[in-house]
Specification:
The protein is of the alpha+beta class. It is about 35% helix and about 20% strand. It is globular, with a radius of gyration of 15 Å.
């Protein structure tokens, strides 16, 4: 059964396979997070661990890169298979107010059209007790 987990190096193989799917998918625009992962390229275990550490650090203002806001990223997995991600921005910039908002999500192409996006959003909103007012995060 799919569940949320904190980003972790144990999902490296499946995460990299999902990135390849995102890049090969010509039906949807490439998500910003896919190109963001390439800095540095995460193919090597140490680089992937550094990527995971960076994503976890973005939860606090101290870990935020220039041009970004603090955000909590959760991975949606089934067993050891990475299915997608949910990013919850802690605050908005004027630009994010117009395009982006508080919540961003992606579902890997091979897992789309199976209700994962709906399940991710519903589970996160319900767990925060804000199903009816999810815009006020």
């Amino acid at each position: 059964m799919p569940r949320f987990v904190h980003p972790a190096a144990t999902f490296r193989t499946s995460f990299l396979a999902a990135l390849a799917e995102f890049r090969a998918d010509t039906d949807y625009p490439l998500s910003w997070f896919v190109s963001d992962v390439d800095t540095p390229a995460p193919a090597e275990p140490d680089a992937f661990e550094a990527y995971v550490a960076r994503v976890l650090a973005e939860r606090t203002q101290a870990g935020v890169r220039p041009g970004f806001v603090p955000m909590t990223t959760l991975w949606w997995v089934d067993g050891d298979r990475f299915l997608g991600r949910l990013a919850i921005r802690h605050r908005l910039t004027p630009a994010l107010t117009e395009l982006g908002g508080h919540i961003g999500y992606d579902v890997r192409p091979s897992a789309r059209r199976r209700g994962h996006a709906t399940a991710m959003l519903a589970r996160r909103c319900r767990s925060r007790g804000r199903w009816a007012s999810a815009r006020r995060w």
